[in-house]
Design a protein that fits this description.
This protein has two helices and eight strands. The chain is an alpha/beta fold and 127 residues long. The chain folds into two domains: 57 residues, no CATH class; 51 residues, no CATH class. The chain has a three-stranded antiparallel sheet, with no helix packed on it. Strands 6-7-8 form a three-stranded mixed sheet, with no helix packed on it. The two termini are 27 Å apart.
C-alpha cells in the first residue's frame, strides 16, 4: 500500500467488502494498516457523489459533505439462485458447487457470483 496524503479518510459501513475474499487474519492486517494511514476512520453510510465529470465531494445520509478528489468503492453482490432452485439444484447462499464448480446435478456446472463452492485457492468455502 503506498503512502496516501495525510488528509486521506477511510469510510465504510457493515462488513468490509473485501472480507469474503480474504480470511479473518488478512482482514485484520488490512484494517490495522488502514487505521495507521488514516487516523480517524468512520463508519457512515454514503448517499451520493458530487462533481461535474470528477468527484468533488461525497454526501452522507446524515447530510455531511466530505470534500475529496478520489473515491474507491467496494461493492459486494448477493446471488439470485431462484432459477437454479426451481430447477432442483441444491442452493445455500448461492448455487452449491464442488471445487470443480459442478452443481448437485451431474453434468451441470455453475460459475461466477452465483456459486457457493469449496475454493482450492482460498482453502475454504466461498459464497
Amino acid at each position: 500500500m503506498s503512502e496516501p496524503r495525510r488528509d486521506s479518510k477511510w469510510w465504510g459501513w457493515g462488513d468490509p467488502a473485501i472480507e469474503p475474499e480474504l480470511d479473518a487474519e488478512a482482514v485484520a492486517v488490512l484494517s490495522e494498516r488502514i487505521g495507521e494511514l488514516t487516523p480517524s476512520p468512520r463508519a457512515e453510510e454514503l448517499e451520493a457523489f458530487e462533481g461535474d465529470g470528477r468527484v468533488k465531494a461525497v454526501l452522507t445520509k446524515s447530510g455531511r459533505a466530505i470534500e475529496c478528489d478520489t473515491v474507491v468503492v467496494g461493492a459486494g453482490v448477493r446471488p439470485d439462485a431462484m432459477l437454479a432452485q426451481r430447477a432442483g439444484l441444491e442452493v445455500d447462499d448461492g448455487i452449491v458447487c464442488d471445487s470443480k464448480l459442478q452443481t448437485s446435478a451431474a453434468g451441470i456446472y455453475a460459475a461466477g457470483d452465483c456459486c457457493s463452492y469449496d475454493s482450492v485457492v482460498h482453502g475454504r468455502r466461498l459464497v
